[in-house]
Amino acid sequence: MSSVKIINLTKSFNNTNVLKNITIDVEEGEFISLLGPSGCGKSTLLKLIAGLLEVDSGDIVFNNESVINILTEKRGAIIVFQDYLLFPHMTVYENIEFGLKMKKVTKDIRSKKVEEILNLVKLKEHKNRYPSQLSGGQQQRVAMARALVLNPRILLLDEPFSNLDINLRNEMREFVLSIQKRLNITTIMVTHNKEEALTMSNRVAVMLDGEIKQFDTPKNLYENPNSIEVANIFGERN
Ligand code: ADP
Ligand code: MG
């Protein structure tokens, strides 16, 4: 686990400024959300943190160490994508094992780690199934397991519940939070769902049009919104 500091980060695509001077400070073990409408730059910010995109300017610091020149595999911030991106031709076990194979972890250690994670996400009895033989919630647990088996310092979740129906969504929110607390892993979740952000997070960063409007506790966002835009999001009218 690790603290995360994002300092004056900017990113443009084709001369369009998608992220404007983003500054966020996340404590070790904290669960924060980036809340904002589609297109405001949330996924771009996660990809910059994970090292899947290069920053234009600004800095990203994990535990007091700048990581912008550290390759994504060495950074230890892992994204679980919204559509899971599981390998369809591999079993649950093989999907989870894959990242460890890439890292040249020995077979014995791989097997120990995969079994541990299968227990954690309660998928032991499904380990020989293929993704198409699993429910949406189970597929999501495989995606989580695949990230967690690599022992990330920071877990990045990109709209993790958007493909699940409403009942399953509540169950999975609790499930993800219980694992996050158990491992005490610093987590940044992207969502456009206000309830989700408010109920799951220690703090919420409200993002609009490439900017963080307010980064605060759920209580303060309700009681002391710092602008009309934020008040509109959390006020009675919405
Ligand atoms: P969000 O996740 O909040 O919906 P994104 O970070 O995916 O938003 O995208 C923010 C903006 O940046 C959008 O206008 C999107 O079209 C644009 N964008 C994202 N990735 C790229 C890219 N690789 N090339 C060009 N434009 C991009
Ligand atoms: Mg997105």
From TrEMBL:
Q: Top enzyme class of this protein?
A: translocase
Its Enzyme Commission number(s) read 7.6.2.9
Q: Which of UniProt's keywords are assigned here?
A: ATP-binding, Nucleotide-binding, Transport
The source's domain of life comes to Bacteria
Asked if the keyword Secreted belongs to this entry, the reply reads: no
Q: Tell me yes or no: is Transmembrane among this UniProt entry's keywords.
A: no
What is this protein called in UniProt?
ABC-type quaternary amine transporter
